[in-house]
Amino acid sequence: xxxxxxxxxxxxxxxxxxxxAARLAATVLEAQSERGHASVVLTGGRNGNAxxxxxxxxxxxxxxxxxxxxxxxxxxxxxxxxxxxxxxxxARQALLDAVDLDPARVHPMPASDGPWGEGPEAADTAAAAYxxxxxxxxxxxxxxxxxxxxxxxxxxxxxLGPDTHVASLFPELPAVRExxxxxxxxxxxxxxxxxxxxLTLPAIRSAREVWLLAAGEDKAQAAALALSGAGEVQxxxxxxxxxxxxxxxxxxxAASRLPGDLLPPVGG
Length: 268
Ligand SMILES: O=C(O)[C@H](O)[C@@H](O)[C@H](O)[C@H](O)COP(=O)(O)O
Hints:
Layout: E1 5-10, H1 13-35, E2 38-42, H2 46-57, E3 69-73, E4 75-77, H3 87-94, H4 120-141, E5 155-159, E6 183-186, E7 196-199, H5 201-204, E8 209-214, H6 220-226, E9 245-251
Parallel strand pairs: 1-9, 2-3, 2-5, 5-8, 8-9
Antiparallel strand pairs: 4-7, 6-7
Helix pairs in contact: 1-2, 2-3
Bound molecules: 6-phosphogluconic acid.
Residues 43-48, 75, 77, 87, 159-161, 165, 167-168, 191 line the site of 6-phosphogluconic acid.
């Protein structure tokens, strides 16, 4: 099963972060009530971190049983552990250090000072190690998704680049063409740093729900292109969807170039 994108437009990035945080808390709570645990894939970028910061400030924070939440990452900058530019570091600062997570359920992508060493080849090995970690979690949890190679993600968060990249899948680079592996090393990324690790489109598409977060005028063209049937190699955001739900959570500026038939009322 796959889902058509649903677009929600908020006044600005602040409202977007607050509403998305409330939506995430509700979805996690529902999953935990139904199955005892929940699984979320985090993203880097300003909007993903604004969501986490909004959740840290929200009363909804206390409704979540943080010890029964699995956290994964959609992509990572291949930098040393604790580097201020790592998505993991930024997520810790925005929320994770302030809640009672089970460390065994937190799965940052490998760092460049880990056992695989640094440099482009090490990123490939580290990516394979993360794929193995996903497969191990999937096997432990039951049937899993994507042929049992990834656990069932309840929500997978993504930012949107002005060039339509999602996670670290950039237009035309080999990573966006990957159809077999679930995690790959990314080389020569146009956004620094050039070496990264990313989930692939098949892994992203195995999630129950995929939410894209985008605010600002510089995202308007990318959102319009991706939602108007562009090809996923040229516009990676066009190729992401969830099995049950695909949400595009935008602010007015990011939605400003969408065709009228895609535009819902503001504030949803
Ligand atoms: O490592 C990264 O840079 C991010 O994972 C990247 O994919 C980000 O999510 C987008 O570029 C959107 O970023 P903003 O939300 O800051 O616009």
